[in-house]
Amino acid sequence: MKLYSAPGTCSTAMHIALEWIGKPYEVEHLDHVAKKAPGYLELNPSGVVPTLVDGDMALPEGMAILLYLVDQHSDAKIGPALDSAERKDLHRWLAYLTGTLHPYFWLHFTPMRFTSDPEGQAAVQAASHILIDKALTQIDQHLEGRNWMVGDRKSVADAFLYPMASWGYDLDKPTNAYPNIDRVLRKLASDPAVRKVHERQGTATRVDLAA
């Protein structure tokens, strides 16, 4: 398997999942220019990361990759099995993270894409912080009394939460204002596989910087 990724992005989740699986894989980190190169666009016409290549298959989209890894490597137990009662919860939270929380951060990181008025970018960012707070509050409430996002063990849902919620440590209302999310992220930040991913990316954990 080969993962096309970029340091600090949501594709960190797929990198973590591959480490948890424990089988040989490659990772290639792409910059903006490489994402738009013709060869990569053949794999992922959107010109973004992540993309997972497994044999002759090229699979883009983070949620799709995580579900594929769960099902293809069931022995790694990184997510509920298809026939389990908890599988619907995995789908629910992966969809929420990719379809709700992730887009809210787009407004924060790239406000210029959402207004034609340069003076309006600060207002776009301010609106994004309200939305991010709403989403993180819902996740934090879900985690009350729970050790992990889904079931009683860590899963790809936690791996997906990790990079996105980590971005929030830089906000005016930082991620450690959501105690249950912060608790889960701190457990993940101490996971040897997550530490190895940061080492390969050349990045530091936001949890450590926020401590």
Outline the secondary-structure elements.
Layout: E1 2-5, H1 12-21, E2 26-29, H2 32-35, H3 38-43, E3 51-54, E4 57-60, H4 62-72, H5 87-109, H6 121-143, H7 156-167, H8 179-189, H9 192-201, H10 206-210
Number of extended strands: 4
Average pLDDT for all residues? 97
CATH architectural designation of the largest domain:
Up-down Bundle
Percent range of helical residues:
40-55%
Distance between the termini: 35 Å
> Which CATH class of the largest domain?
Mainly Alpha
How many domain regions?
2
The amount of beta strand, in percent, is 5-15%
Q: Describe the global form.
A: globular
Number of helices, where a helix is a run of at least 4 consecutive DSSP H or I residues:
10
Adjacency order of strands in the biggest sheet:
2-1-3-4
CATH topology of the largest domain: Glutathione S-transferase Yfyf (Class Pi), Chain A, domain 2
Largest sheet: 4 strands, mixed
Describe the structure.
- Helices cover 55% and strands 8% of the residues.
- It is an alpha+beta fold and 211 residues long.
- The chain has two domains: 2-76, Glutaredoxin, CATH 3.40.30.10; 87-191, Glutathione S-transferase Yfyf (Class Pi), Chain A, domain 2, CATH 1.20.1050.
- It has a four-stranded mixed sheet with strand order 2-1-3-4, with helices on one face.
- Helix 1 links the parallel strand 1 (2-5) and strand 2.
- Helix 1 (12-21) packs parallel to helix 4 and helix 1 (12-21) packs across helix 9 (192-201).
- It is globular, with a radius of gyration of 17 Å.
